[in-house]
C-alpha cells in the first residue's frame, strides 16, 4: 500500500482525480505496517494531516446493478517505482 497525505502540495486531490497514480519512493521510506507508516508521518509533520489515504490499487465496486466496475473512486492504474538514495 501507499500512504498518501493531504500535507503535500497537491492536498486532497492526489488520490481522486488522476486516471493513473505514479509513485516514486525511496527504499528507505518502506515500512513494515500501517502503524509504522503513521508514526513516520507524524514524525515528519508534527501532527497527522487532515486526510490520509492508503492506496492499494484501483477501487472496485459492484454497487450499481451488481456489475463490477474498477477504478470508480480513484485511479484505474497504480505504478510504484522504488529508488535507492
Q: What's the story with the biggest beta sheet?
A: 2 strands, antiparallel
CATH superfamily: NagB/RpiA/CoA transferase-like
Order of helices and strands: EEHEEEE
**What value does the Rg take, in angstroms?**
14 Å
Tell me the span between the first and last alpha carbons. 21 Å
Parts with pLDDT < 50 across at least 5 consecutive residues: none
The first-level CATH class name: Alpha Beta
| General form | globular
For this structure, the CATH topology is Rossmann fold
Q: Would you identify the CATH architecture?
A: 3-Layer(aba) Sandwich
Strand content: 25-35%
Fold and architecture overview:
This protein is α+β, with helices and mostly antiparallel strands and 85 residues long. It has a single domain (2-83), classed as Rossmann fold (3-Layer(aba) Sandwich). It is built from one helix and six strands, in the order E-E-H-E-E-E-E. The strands form three sheets. It has a two-stranded antiparallel sheet with strand order 1-3. A two-stranded parallel sheet has the order 2-6. Strand 4 and strand 5 form a beta hairpin. 5% of the residues are buried.
